Amino acid sequence: MAFSDIVGTSVTQFVDYALAIVSVMILYYIVKFFLVGPPTKEEKEKELEGRRKAFGEWREKSSEDSKKKAELKKKEKEKARKKNVVSPIKENLVNAVEAVDEAIGHLNMKKPDKVREVSKKLHRHLETAWANLKLLRRDLEGQEREFASDLIEQVLAVQKLLHDAVKDKLPHRVDATWAAAVGAIQTDLKTVRSACGALFKKVEQFHQ
């Protein structure tokens, strides 16, 4: 038998087998179609209930995800707002500390006029910090609002200490009382400096 005849016979047999398998499958599905009845009313309702339940669970999960995203967006927005307000306050306090150091330097050089000039600048820095703290407090609630109010009161106390130290204690000219007066003023100014540093650390908590 020629090789081509062998190949042809094999192909014919393979096709016959394939047709037989396909015929069996067609017969199976025909029998199944006639023997297996359509879904009952209860089965349809059960399937429909399953779909409703799945949809409800999806909708609930979608709603929860939307709420979480909205809450996260709100927190990020509030954090950004606080940062925009807190940053100037921190800058005010840093400038206040630098002004204190400058005032102490002028005291050591016995320049009362310069001390008064720098004290006015220091007062402006504290005044601006006070105003910015009030702006920060405006939209706060609960403990945060109370915390901001406490900081505002502390700034006012520092302002009073500065006013009393310079206006009531600083001599207008260098004389025999200068050394004694300067010692008390330096102490007050160092207290102002420490208070501004403490306020700076407390203000930073609004960034957290």
Question: Could you characterize the architecture of this molecule?
Answer:
This protein has a domain at 81-207: Up-down Bundle (Four Helix Bundle (Hemerythrin (Met), subunit A)). The protein has 208 residues and is an all-alpha fold. The model has no long low-confidence stretch (mean pLDDT 82). Helix 2 packs antiparallel against helix 3 (112-137). 88% of the residues lie in helices and 0% in strands. It is built from 5 helices and no strands. It has helices at residues 3-35, 41-108, 112-137, 142-169, 178-204.
Descriptive key words:
88% helix, 208 residues, Four Helix Bundle (Hemerythrin (Met), subunit A), mainly alpha, 5 helices
User: Any idea what the shape is?
Assistant: rod-shaped
In percent, how helical is the residue content?
Answer: over 70%
* Topology, number of strands: 0
Radius of gyration based on Cα positions: 42 Å
Structural class: mainly alpha
Quaternary state reads single chain
Q: Average the pLDDT over all residues and give the rounded result.
A: 82
CATH fold description of the domain at 81-207 = Four Helix Bundle (Hemerythrin (Met), subunit A)
N-to-C span:
91 Å
Residue stretches low in confidence (pLDDT < 50, at least 5 long) are none
**Number of H/I helices:** 5
Under the CATH scheme, which class of the domain at 81-207?
Mainly Alpha
